[in-house]
Amino acid sequence: MELQIANPKTVYSKTREYFHVTKHQLFSSNSVSTNGKNVMDGVKFMNKINQSTITACFFDPQYRGIMDKMSYGNEGERQKERALLSQMNNDTIIEFIREINRVLVASGHLFLWIDKFHLCEGIEDWFKKTEFSIVDLITWDKGKIGMGYRTRRRSEYLMVLQKEPIRAKGIWIKHNIPDTWIEKIAGKIHPHQKPMLLQKSLIEAVSSEKDYILDPCAGSYSVLEACKLSGRNFIGCDIKTV
Predict the structure, then answer these.
(1) pTM for the full predicted model
(2) How far is CA 69 from CA 7, 26, 80, 94, 123, in A?
(3) What distance lies between CA 182 and its chain's CA centroid?
(4) Of 111, 168, 116, nearest to 142 (Cα)?
(5) What is residue 27's predicted lDDT score, i.e. its pLDDT?
C-alpha cells in the first residue's frame, strides 16, 4: 500500500511537493492497523510511527481543567462518565505533544482541543522543545448550554498549531471555514465527542486525498469518520474502545 505525504518545497512556495512512502516506511511495527481502531496508550502508539510522515493530527487531552478550577467535586449525573475517564497531567500532555511534533511533516498541523481556563491562563509550557507555533483559534459552539456557576459553558476551543516552517499558501487550501463553528452532536457515544463536520472541513483544508491523519486519543473516533468522508487515511488509537 502506498500513500501520499505532503511537504512544502520552501517557506516561500505556494505549492506542496508530494512523495510516496510505503506502509512499511510509515510504521516501525506491523501491529498497528490503519483506518480502524487500535486499543493502546497514545504515546506508545506514536512511538511506532516514523518521523515526519503524518500530515495533520487532532489531540484532545483528557484533563479535568474547568471542573477542578470551579471546584465542582461531585459533577452529578450528566458529568459522571467524563469524571471517570483517565486523567492526564501536564507531563503526560507534553509527552504527547512532543511525539506529535516528531511524526508530523514540515508545516503539518496540530488541532488541539482546550477549555476556556487553559485558553486564558496559557499553555506555553506544552510546546517547549517543539517546532509548533499557534496560528489560529476556532470556537466550537455546541448549540447547548452546559455547567457554570456564573456564565454557562456553551463552547470549546480548538487551537490550531503549525510545525515549522510556518506558512499558509499551498498548505491551507480551504478558505470558507468560519472561526466560530456551530455544530450539535447527534447520537453522542463518548463524553468528549467532538464535531465531526468541523474536523472534516479542517482535514480537507490541510491535506490531500490518501494523506494520513492522526488521532492518538481517538475517543469516539469522530476523526476516523471524518477521514472516511474526506477520502483520507486514518491512524489512531485510544486506551479503550467505544
Answers:
(1) 0.85
(2) 40, 40, 17, 20, 15
(3) 18
(4) 116
(5) 78
